[in-house]
Hints:
The protein has one domain (7-127). Helix content is 34%, strand content 17%. The protein has eight helices and four strands. The protein has helices at 16-20, 22-25, 28-36, 62-66, 68-71, 74-82, 85-91, 118-122; strands spanning 10-15, 48-53, 56-61, 94-100. Strands 1-4-2-3 form a four-stranded antiparallel beta sheet. A hairpin with a 2-residue loop joins β2 (48-53) and β3. The chain is elongated, with a radius of gyration of 16 Å.
Amino acid sequence: MSMPCGKCCMDLTLRIQELMFPHAFLDEKGLDFYRTHGLEQFLTHKENVEFEYSSITYRISLLGLIRPDLYLDEDGQRFYVEHNLGAMVQENATVRVNHRCQHLQADRSCGIYETRPVICQEFNCALRDDCADPQVHPLEFRS
């Protein structure tokens, strides 16, 4: 069995509204994936999410994106305006979330392989343009 590259368990491309309001914009499979990857931690103002948009990496709270006036300090609000993040939210832009699935092991195997979500089971790593081994079809994880 080949060594998995783990790319499908790191970084995630979502529309900003799917990231901010998963229960409103994701179906059950999407919510299962969202939860499994540990993205719910970003739904509180205490956790900052890191994402790339227009070749810039941002680190900001999701609540700060929704209501910068309430959840960002003065510097954060200035940054929000200077980088026109309000337009990004209104446009429902696609962002690449920099994350690591909470179940991805150091050897790049899946820690919940036997009970992983259907969306992970069905995922075809050849769809990623940055997969380390596009010949693996689908990505094989060791249990």
